[in-house]
């Protein structure tokens, strides 16, 4: 008897994978679909709240996967080299590896929430038994459709109010003003990121290229002023919009750089 093909959908905590799970559930074509979330153990706290909410809507468990060793073990193994866009070992070791272990040698279809209006690259598994499919592209769904799907169901994750992507609290893809948002909302997590940078400071590793987090705090006013200017420019286009509406129109969230498995 032929082995059953597994259907899986990785939930990152981001808007697109959540919307895809909702979209596929509403179509009810794949009742056997398995949802999973690869947890680095250092994710943004709000992500866990959003996952719980989504789980209730989907009526099915989002299986939590993770590396057997924590982030700090991996960091030690890399001789203290903080992950960066050029050295994305965190994604490979803490997101992709647990996913590939979860699938093993099973034949599998992996549903990925890349939209029809983007051309995103990122880490996806190259294993031959894992076939990626892109329902939003096939059905021509764009950014606004994704926000509508979320608004009508579980809501847009609250962290989008101050941060443009899901993932680890210290993700090096976040903007400078998002680091400041982390400092304000999650001072403990921010302090941990500062400490990690300091521990490895002798080696010259910083989360932001060319700037330490302490320098970022010193330049807070200048960074916030620049961010305000950008937001005002966007807001001038239309008045009376909610932050969710502004987010829909603010296409500058650097999505093309993000890891599919981390923040899609
Ligand atoms: S969210 Fe950022 S820091 Fe975390 S695994 Fe993904 S790329 Fe690395």
CATH fold naming: Rossmann fold
User: Strand portion, in percent?
Assistant: 5-15%
- Which ligands occur here? iron/sulfur cluster
Q: Any idea what the CATH architecture is?
A: 3-Layer(aba) Sandwich
Mean pLDDT: 87
User: So what's the overall shape?
Assistant: globular
How many strands in all?
A: 5
Q: Please give the share of residues in helix.
A: 40-55%
Structural class: alpha/beta
InterPro entries: PAPS_reduct_dom, Rossmann-like_a/b/a_fold, Sulfate_adenylyltrnsfr_sub2
Domain Phosphoadenosine phosphosulphate reductase: 7-120
Pfam family, one: PAPS_reduct
GO molecular function: catalytic activity
Structural commentary:
The chain has 264 residues and is of the alpha/beta class. The model has no long low-confidence stretch (mean pLDDT 87). It is built from twelve helices and five strands. It has helices at 15-27, 45-58, 71-77, 89-103, 135-138, 143-151, 176-185, 187-199, 213-218, 220-237, 243-249, 260-263, and strands spanning 6-10, 34-39, 62-66, 108-111, 130-133. It is globular and about 65 Å long. Strand 2, helix 2 and strand 3 (62-66) form a beta-alpha-beta unit. Strands 3-2-1-4-5 form a five-stranded parallel beta sheet, sandwiched between helices. The chain has one domain: HUPs (Rossmann fold, 3-Layer(aba) Sandwich). It is 45% helix and 9% strand. Helix 1 packs across helix 6 and helix 7 (176-185) packs across helix 8. It binds iron/sulfur cluster (SF4). Iron/sulfur cluster binds at residues 40, 83, 88, 90-91, 94-95, 167-168, 171, 173, 259, 262.
